[in-house]
C-alpha cells in the first residue's frame, strides 16, 4: 500500500513520521491494515467544527479516534479542540504543526473540490490554521453523507488547516470514491489552477497521487 510504503521509509530512517489526515469515509481503510511501529508516528488532522458537544460523534477528532486511531496502538494523535476559544486554538494548533513538512498527507476531495474546510481557499495563505465560515455546499454534503439530520444542524464555522500548510509535505495521497465526486475530480484535473476549483491546488505539489474509484473517474 502506497501510504504504508511512505511511512516505512521514514521509520527505517530512524525518524518519527508526521502524518496529516482527513476525517472522512474516503479515508476509512487507508492505513488501518498496515503493520507499523505506530509508537513512532504522530497524527494531526485537518479540521474541526466549532460548537459541537465535546463527545459529539460528528466531531472529526472523535470520528478519527473511533474509526482509526484506536487501531494504531502507541501513535500520538494531536486533536484540534476549539471549544470556547476557537481563535486561540487555531493559533495553538498552528504552533504545534510548526514549519516542518509533513511526511505524508492523506486527504479527500469535497463535492465542490474543497480541501479541508478551505471554502474558498487562499493558496498562498500565510497562516497555517485559521477559523473559517463553512460554505453551504460543504454543509449540505455533511447532511447528504448522513453525518447530520438537517442543514441547520451542521455548524457554520470550523477551524481548518490551510491549503498552503497541507501541501507543505513530502507526499500527498488523495483517496476519492463515489459518483458524487466525479465533477470535482474532473475540475481538479482539467480546470485552470486557482481558487475557483480548490482541488487544483493538488497539481502544484510535485508528489501528489490521486486514487479514484470507477464511479468517481471522469473519463
UniProtKB/TrEMBL annotation:
Key word Cytoplasm present: no
Gene3D superfamilies linked: 3.40.50.1360
Limits of the Glucosamine/galactosamine-6-phosphate isomerase domain: 8-204
Record-linked SUPFAM superfamilies: NagB/RpiA/CoA transferase-like (SSF100950)
Keyword tags: Carbohydrate metabolism
Any Pfam family the entry gives: Glucosamine_iso
UniProt name for this protein: Glucosamine-6-phosphate deaminase
Organism of provenance: Amycolatopsis ultiminotia
